[in-house]
Automatic annotation (TrEMBL):
It is found in: Cytoplasm. InterPro entries: CofD (IPR002882), CofD-like_dom_sf (IPR038136), Gluconeogen_factor (IPR010119). This is Putative gluconeogenesis factor. It comes from the Bacteria. Signal peptide: none annotated. PANTHER family: GLUCONEOGENESIS FACTOR-RELATED, UNCHARACTERIZED PROTEIN YVCK-RELATED. GO terms for molecular function: LPPG:FO 2-phospho-L-lactate transferase activity. Keywords: Cytoplasm, Transferase. The keyword Cell membrane does not apply. One of its GO terms (biological process) is regulation of cell shape. It holds the Pfam family CofD. GO terms for cellular component: cytoplasm. Required for morphogenesis under gluconeogenic growth conditions.
Amino acid sequence: MAAMSGSLPLVPAAARRSGDGQGGGPSVVALGGGHGLSSSLSALRLLTQELTAIVTVADDGGSSGRLRRELGVLPPGDLRMALAALCDDTDWGRTWRDVMQHRFSSRDGVEGSLDGHAMGNLLIVTLWELLGDPVAGLQWAGALLGARGRVLPMASVPLTIEGDILSETAGSLRVTTVSGQAKLAVAADTGNVSNVRLVPADAPACQDALEAVELADWVVLGPGSWYTSVLPHLLLPELRDALCRTSARRCLTMNLSNDTRETLGMSAIDHLNVISRYAPELTVDVVLVDPSVVADRGEFERAVAGMGGRAVFGRVGVSTGKPVHDPLRLATSYNDMFAEI
């Protein structure tokens, strides 16, 4: 992706002024994608100014998928959502967040070329084309929002996630291979997800992301769609190795519901087993979990101990009972966790 003549400088002035590394709070790297990552970022931004989001780049549906196919770029949607979660809590930041999140909708039933596109996706891709550098483009977008932290892609190239769906028909087991994040999420309704992998398997990780993991005080993985937002970070060899080698403390944040489209019939311990299966060398310091999703506390604590860590139980969901994390409750749990260890 070559930069156009007369393009912007690679680092916006606002980022140069604020990028001295002297912010308050621990250095935290949060990994994930979609709404799950937005939840953790909305909480963590209340605790530290040294925050980096590392985002999956396997989305192939909706606006992101169209831009990926038509322009050969990284899918911008999850990156946009992470930026929106980090926007400055001022009229300026909130206004630009709303601009980034605005989605075009054609009128009178006419499906136009902009129908379904998010404005932020188009803006991010524009910056990428001007700068020829995905990281720099995201830095400029973050400066526009006054983002409290930075957003990085997990890989330097678009990724495709593949998985096998195990289903039983007339007493016989059937295995169907599904390619693509959007198709995999839908196919999971018909059976259990198994043998998930990335294509290309040896894709290069984003070097800035690897450096952020290496220098972090804490690494937070999850919550999010377990197979398509959380697990991909452990399927990318360079990133998995960095997560295993880092001297940072590692926290795994569990979802508020076990029965999602991707994990129907799985228990909280089954979720842990998925992590251990694909990254057996990964240890954790803390697993943060809402007690509502754990059937047997003792059994869950033993499973976490087998991963090298301890379970921290906290009511982190919204008061309505919906499986949505409350930013203030989640921030309180993270703050206590950071202080105790």
